[in-house]
Amino acid sequence: MTSGDHILDYPDVYPYMAEEPRLLHPENYDIPGTGAHVYDTPKGKVGVVNVVGHVFMKDRVPTRNAFNTAQQAVARLREQTPVVFVDIHGEATSEKIGMGWLLDGQASAVFGTHTHVQTADAQVLPGGTGYLTDLGMTGPHLGVIGRDKDTVLKRFTQEEKAYMRVAKQWVRMSGAIFEVETGSGRCRSVELFTHALEDTSDPEPNEA
Ligand SMILES: [Fe+2]
Predict the structure, then answer these.
(1) What does the alpha-carbon distance between residue 120 and residue 12 come to, in Å, rounded to a whole number?
(2) Percent of the chain at pLDDT above 70?
(3) Which residue among 37, 84, 114, 197 has its CA within the 20 to 30 Å range from the CA of 50?
């Protein structure tokens, strides 16, 4: 499981991360645990790298450059397996697209997270790296990127500090399937998906 900027809000999870490499933090945050690891799967070894972007990260800016960090981490994991996935958790499409080109031919797939909105640019780059600017959100879509829409609109129109409740309805799982050749690590295809996880026909507003 990869993570992002908000991992810094929960230092109580650091001791757990220090011992549990299945939970990654962005490799360019200097906190306990890791942001790059190789896992044994039924189909062979799979490397996963997690980095955070620089744009609009306010007080959660990375301590090291996302691009250099990702490049070094991918090279390190490739000593164990050609199959390496990279999650760049960032706001700017330009950073994510740049990361895709930087790692084309090195990573099996580069995909973005953080904006919560799935993008329509799934492709396999010329060097064999599958690419998608944002996987999209798994969570409630009757809202504004996961928060209750009425409380968000209050914040936009009236009170800058209004509390934004978590939305509850129209829960969907979004993501992408990257088909990768295990021998070479090359991506063959990318397929987007969004599945409704509950009845999404009810337009009633969320309860308080
Ligand atoms: Fe984020």
Answers:
(1) 37
(2) 95
(3) 197
